[in-house]
Amino acid sequence: xxxxxxxxxxxxxxxxxxxxxxxxxxxxxxxxxxxxxxxxxxxxxxxxxxxxxxxxxxxxxxxxxxxxxxxxxxxxxxxxxxxxxxxxxxxxxxxxxxxxxxxxxxxxxxxxxxxxxxxxxxxxxxxxxxxxxxxxxxxxxxxxxxxxxxxxxxxxxxxxxxxxxxxxxxxxxxxxxxxxxxxxxxxxxxxxxxxxxxxxxxxxxxxxxxxxxxxxxxxxxxxxxxxxxxxxxxxxxxxxxxxxxxxxxxxxxxxxxxxxxxxx
Length: 264
Known about the structure:
Layout (H helix, E strand, L loop, with lengths): L1 H24 L3 H13 L3 H11 L9 H14 L3 H14 L6 H13 L10 H16 L6 H28 L3 H14 L6 H17 L3 H21 L6 H16 L4
């Protein structure tokens, strides 16, 4: 009995593979659609994709097109081909706005693009695009079942952008480009007022202002020392018991000492 079942399984598998191979070579688009749907239903998405790719252009405007293009997009998604998946889901939701799958497609278009977002240290062009797509979905479907998840992903992507901007500003401080660091931290604090990096940003802004001041030529030193002193005040105003207080107080003492020469 076991041998019979094994043989039967092999025959079914062979038949399935044979049917797929024949469909690939067959010019009959209806047959490709039929076998492609079978492959999709069985979770064989790479095989389904090959067939759908062959017939997609010829099914534009046909009654079966809605189902085909939904399966086409979902197959890309299942295969983690997120760029074509996002494109196809976008195309589906705009082509079939009244479809019961339109909302899901709009969400998966945005979600797929979010998967293209790289780690924070790399260029974030795709992250910005993903945020725009998610926000568009949130605006268009305010009562969607996917709303909570869309907001969560958008929040994570914005936090990645925050971290990217903070690290860029901090890098200027690290390489002793204090002028650029001051501009970058000012922009960061203005652009992300509620950021969890604010205390760190205020400290490194102060550190940058301090180092720029004490290494200045005499004609610019007083003005820059006052800027540094103001940066210290901003840090203490934000958090008087900051973890950087000891270092900041030592730097302030140096600033006060250096300022005395200009009051004589």
